[in-house]
Amino acid sequence: MMLRFLTLILSFLLLFGCKEPKEKENSSDLATEIERTNCINLVFEKDSILGAIRNHASEKISLSETINNYTNDLKSLDFNNCPEEFKSSFQNHIEAWLDIRKVTDKYPSLRGELHAIFADLEKSSDSTEFNILVKQIWATWEKVEESSK
After folding, report:
1. Structural domain tally of the chain?
2. Residue 18 sits in a domain of what CATH number?
3. Considering 5, 19, 85, 90, which has the largest number of Cβ atoms within 10 A of its Cβ?
């Protein structure tokens, strides 16, 4: 009888003792997921603000300088709690922006809103290379968005 009682208590302790760490693990996973989501949302929010600044900065400074400022600001964002795939995708997006300077460096005197300058460069003698580089910016942005899900 005593052996049966001890077996029952031991089984009870094992049963409930095993569930508690799993619940803690689940709450830890949830906290990590919330941190990752918050990090991604904050990066997107700051990128939106920086993008608006970028779009008009080229009215006063060269497009290449505008891109340098924009990418430097993006590099300074806090990605510490973001998923690795998101960080990597965003870094590739930053690199795509930096690559477009291969063309924009040739046009230091162009001024205007970024999209207006882009429209001019799409018709320039460097249009083929420029269009390839713009497609790369959009392709990397698509990867950023995919990695955010």
Report:
1. 1
2. 1.20.120
3. 90
